[in-house]
Structure of Uracil permease:
Amino acid sequence: MADHPVDEKLPAPKMATTGLQHVAAMYAGVVAPPLIVGAAVGLTPAELTFLTGACLFTAGLATFLQTVGVWKIGARLPFVNGVTFAGVAPMTAIVASTDDKKDALPVIFGAVIVAGLLGFLAAPFFSKAVRFFPPVVTGTVITLIGVSLLPVAFGWAQGASPDADDYGSAVNLGLAAITLLIVLLLRRFTRGFVKQIAVLLGMVAGTLIAVPFGVTDFSPVAEADLVGFPTPFHFGAPQFQLAAIVSLCVVMVVSMTESTADMLALGEIVERPADERTIAAGLRADTLGSALAPLFNGFMCSAFAQNIGLVAMTRIRSRFVVATGGGFLVLMGLCPVAASLIAVVPRPVLGGAGVVLFGSVAASGIQTLAKAGLDRDNNVLIVAVSLAVGVIPISAPEFYHAFPETARIVLDSGISTGCVVAVLLNLVFNHLGRGGREAADVTHPMETGEDLTAPSGKAPAAS
């Protein structure tokens, strides 16, 4: 019996190039949190480079755990792990509340260790929530993942920093558009392997085109060291403070919720649905990777949804391709020069590629919703309200400004809030009381459904 495409081992050249494509897609997301937190702490450029390399290294280790797996650890799906952005706000808050900034990173590392270990113990219980994720829920969540990521691509398209003079300039937007056009042309007019690595080729072409415009910066390559190792506890032994631990435990719950949704999404895309055992193993990899990361000066790890878009678009489903990408991440952590090569790609070029990647995730969600029975008014309502709640952080970023900071960690994640609302509404409309009745003749959410009685002599059908 032939191996499932998820377990397929491709030829080495193809494995390397497609693995590198995954790294290119998630690189900016991995390095952003250490750059932001490191700047808040006041690290020197050399220390900032070290912290960034450490996060790349630990992301690679976590990706190995997730894709290759050990014992009951790892979803064994083409699942990329990296530093979760959900922890940035709480970590910067910890920095701000620490009198001696030299203690800020040790306090963060201590909180991450505790949150990771508690999450590891909770993984098998958390995974039981999979029964509450039918297609109407998973389709909604997958769509929200794509929609929530698109603003990131739009931000990248405008430039590296909102404070820069050229942010949103015609040159930056033009480079993003050219990169997007190249990817689309490659996808339309090429075949086979070239078509599958269209995103990587588009980014290489976009980077070269950006050179005459002065947007491509090669200084990271010139300034990077050839060899470097993330020395354990480089910034000091971990410190354990209750407030910081509670804060990052909340982040861990958010991260586990998003990872569960991502695993369900990826399972649909690769046609190996994620069951309770798979989700438990995946959550163990997330949480163990997080608990081990501070040993090498890294932060909390979580699934990277943008790479799901790459799997959906290329249809390369091998987990060993992503494991190869994890190998590149480890190499970058040990070889700063290698890491700097990806850093050369201008942010607008990443933005152009991101439109394709993140849009592909949303499209996958719509495909799943097509199987969810949207001819029933109950399901239409579930999707409508869940999507509306999920896009609040995108469409009205200050909507929850009056809420406590701890609550905003959850509320400002549209994926998490949309997921929770979808699960609760599915329970209310499809499982409790008369919610399980069939409503095939009502297809619009504004119809009352009051006349949806069963034919004479027949009981309402269960869902």
About this structure: DSSP finds 19 helices and two strands in the chain.
